[in-house]
């Protein structure tokens, strides 16, 4: 393999790792914002309503996967904690695989 092709491949692997890291951090932040907006009663505003609806549409399908698996503990919902931990676990596995290729 020519040196230039190898350099491009290694750069692409680094870019993929960076993309996945940013994606996981961003999604974890969206889950945190979703939790906070569900706890705090915000005054009605069309913009705030759109933001809350966006957070619901983005986070709820992923969190629902874990709500089906986890037992209910009364009013305590542990699905966001497990979901974020699972995201970080997946990121670590992908980083490990990409490091072996790298």
How many β-strand runs? Answer: 0
Query: What would you report as the Rg, rounded to the nearest angstrom?
Result: 18 Å
Order of helices and strands: HHH
Summing up helix and strand content along with how strands pair, one would put the structural category as mainly alpha
Mean pLDDT: 90
The DSSP helix count reads 3
For the biggest sheet, the summary is:
none
Q: How would you explain this protein's 3D organization?
A:
α1 packs across α2 and α2 crosses α3. The protein is mainly alpha-helical and 102 residues long. 82% of the residues lie in helices and 0% in strands. The protein is elongated and about 60 Å long.
Layout of helices and strands, plus pairs?
Blueprint: H1 3-39, H2 46-69, H3 79-101
Helix pairs in contact: 1-2, 1-3, 2-3
Top keywords for this entry?
single chain, 102 residues, mainly alpha, 3 helices
Short description:
The protein has three helices and no strands. With 102 residues, it is an all-alpha fold. α2 packs across α3.
């Amino acid at each position: 393999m020519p040196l230039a092709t190898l350099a491009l491949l290694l750069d692409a692997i680094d870019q993929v790792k960076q993309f996945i890291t940013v994606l996981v951090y961003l999604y974890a932040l969206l889950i945190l914002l979703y939790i906070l907006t569900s706890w705090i009663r915000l005054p009605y505003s069309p913009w705030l309503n759109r933001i809350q609806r966006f957070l619901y549409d983005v986070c709820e399908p992923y969190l629902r996967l874990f709500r089906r698996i986890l037992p209910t503990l009364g009013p305590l919902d542990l699905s966001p904690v497990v979901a974020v931990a699972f995201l970080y676990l997946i990121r670590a596995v992908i980083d490990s695989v990409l490091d072996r290729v790298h």
